[in-house]
Amino acid sequence: MPETIIYHIDVNAAFLSWQACYDISINENAQDIRTIPAVIGGSQEERHGIVLAKSTPAKAYHIQTGEPLVSARKKCPHLAIIPPNFPLYVEKSDAFIELLKMHSPIVEQYSIDEAFCDMTGMEQLHGDPVEYAHTLRKEIKSKLGFTVNIGVSNNKLLAKMASDFTKPDRVHTLFPDEVKTKLWPLPVENLFYVGRSSSKKLHFLGIKTIGDLAQSDPNMIRAHLKKHGEVIWNYANGIDTDILKEQPDPNKGYGNSVTTHFDITDSDTALKIILSLCETVGARIRADHVYISVVSITLVDFEFHHISKQMTLLSSTDVTEKIYEAAATLFKQAWNEIPLRLLGVSTSHASAERYEQYNLFDMQKYEKLSKLNNAIDSIRNRYGEDSVMRACFIDSEAEHMGGGLQKAKRERKK
Q1: Closest of 86, 87, 85, 81 to residue 67, by C-alpha
Q2: Which of 110, 260, 267, 384 is deepest in the core (most CB within 10 A)?
């Protein structure tokens, strides 16, 4: 049986690289934003003021992905800030995945700019897997115009960790016999699946490096971090049994959120935005032919305090109006009238099985609404999202459906 070989391919500064490729494709004399201090960032005026991607020169100023644009500008006053172009990112991502499918029989897209490729048994076709990773890296750069890092190993975890080594435009290996020398010296927070909370607990236990975690007593780690501790202890030792999936797992939940360009100070405005989020969430649920039974909301005020509440429905549903009724109820329970800057609606416990616990009136009401929702979905799928909207969104500052990357993905599928 051939040795398992997995590639993890990660686009370098994806959003910024894809914008640079597009700029050069329409004007060969355009400045390559990858060569100057530049970031992709939302409009600060519209309250989307964070760094989404950064160039290598920007990194030299210690600018971090996710930090506010205000902070990034202080570090680099001449920083170029380019607004995001989500439809472009979806287009470039699709081209990236299609190219990978020409080289591997199983490609699992991990995110918009990352994918795993199963290269097991491909040596007879492609030769040495590490050398071929360099060939693939160069082909992506030549055909698509952007660079990637490729991690090569025997499982997904180690391949992903390897691809995150020195960037950009590199190939790295992290085979099991290299774990002690390449992985163990790294800070424990660099390990996949170790977040801020977990790293604090590990530091409290005297665990500073991945090697410290790997050589610790697994029972002690499990006692402090439960099942999660067992997972990261295995990861620290390079153990991962996850296999590649060409088709993604079904969604277990659906959610959407929006950051507004103004402070929300009244419930009418907040509820209208919540309705717009429910429109998008409901459409996605129906598109996957599932029903949800838990609704949650998230509120973030202008001082970045988070509030979350959820409820379990008596009956599973795919009806936008029913999701909104639950979200509106939760909002009224949760909001303390402090001005808000972010609203989110999410749902969970998705299932293809539907269960009912309505009274007769509700059953008739929601059956009619379900038919109406599906009819509207059909019209929007054919003529575009903006072909049908609720009257309350006419001349409203709130979009009638969610935007950003999710909207770009939906439009791309049509």
Answers
A1: 81
A2: 260
Helix, strand, coil share (%) of the chain residues, nearest 5? 45, 20, 35
Asked if 106 contacts 97 with a C-beta cutoff of 8 angstroms, the reply is no
Residue 162 to residues 3, 6, 173, Cα–Cα distance (Å): 18, 11, 6
pTM: 0.74
Strand ranges of the sheet holding 80-82, from the earlier edge strand across to the other edge = 51-54, 38-41, 80-82
Report cis status (omega within 30 of 0) of the bond before 168: yes
Please give the Cα distance from 238 to 328 (Å, whole number).
Answer: 46
What are the tokens at 266?
A: 């009244």
Q: If we measure between CA atoms, which residue out of 358, 330, 325, 356 comes closest to residue 343?
A: 330
* Catalytic residue numbers, as ranges: 114
Distance CA 132, CA 134 (A): 5
Type and span of the H or E element at 39 = strand 38-41
Per-residue pLDDT of 16-39, as tens digits, reads: 999 999 999 999 999 999 999 999
